[in-house]
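quick one, 345 residues, struct below
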Amino acid sequence: MLYVGVDVHKRNLQVCVLDKAGKRIGDCRLENKPESVSGYFAKLDTPAGVALEATHNWGMLYDLLCDLGLEVHICHSKEAKMIGMASVKTDRVDAFKLATLLRVGLLPEAYVPGVQGRELRSLVRGRASLMAQSTAIKNQIHAILRANWVSSPWSDTFGKSGREFLENLEIGESYKLVILSKLLVLDKIGEQVSLLNSEIVSRAHLDARAMLVTSAPGFAEFRAVMLLAEIVDISRFASAEKLVSYTGLNPREHSSGEKTRRGKISKEGSSWLRWIFVEAAQQAIKEEGKIRDLYLRVSEKRGHNRGVVAAAREMVVAIFWMLKRMEPYRPSGKKAHIISASEVG
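---
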């Protein structure tokens, strides 16, 4: 059995090969291109295991190595650093560390979604990224207005009336040119967001789980599809607490002897999941039901922000059981009709 560590970069790969005794028998640098990867790994003796870090561009490499008959593992980068800290950090050292962790059975592995799952994540994250760019541009326009002591008379500065106000604004020529340029960019981003939204809504209506999730407050098609893209399969999580931990909404804990201290949320796991649950909670606390009741209890004692986090955590638990039981959201917590397999189709 051979153990291969691959340190992945944009343009190249650093490869380290160890035998079962831990002796380095291969060490090279390859171009990060299909032909280079296939040419090298096709000649590798099998059986062989390969460890890759979960970088932004691991997907195609993972698929190619699997097609070559290799046993591929995706390493959880943060946990690997905690296990194998080295005083010297180079690409060769990183590749050797990955191969070594794999050989001794200590490689912390990350979940690997399938090709369709990765493509779906790209779709919803792409839409979220465009919306973030749109928000940033709007903030830049607001900053220009404030710098010139200009206040918009409209609550929605970028609505129909607000746009007319911006386009006819009497302001310095350079400021006006920048504002008009940014408005054009906003229009282009809006067009692309609409295209992605159409695809996301279409996919949501083809997935019974997504439509089930939309019964929860704060979850329209986009958030429902992003939730499923990040979770992939609810059976991955043995309990609601496991899913809460994956969202990073669980509190940090420091225990020693009989003392237990809990601090701020861990922020581990999927930042995308954490974001959509906090956003959904902001809407859920406005609607009558157990989420709002929890928020009011916590916020009264500990403030608005902690109340929202508590509401978001409760939303995670609710979504977990909805997907486990294929059951719609219950604001009051009362028993509802459970959807059967035949109804799901």
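The beta strands are 2-8, 12-18, 24-31, 48-53, 71-75, 251-256, 259-265.
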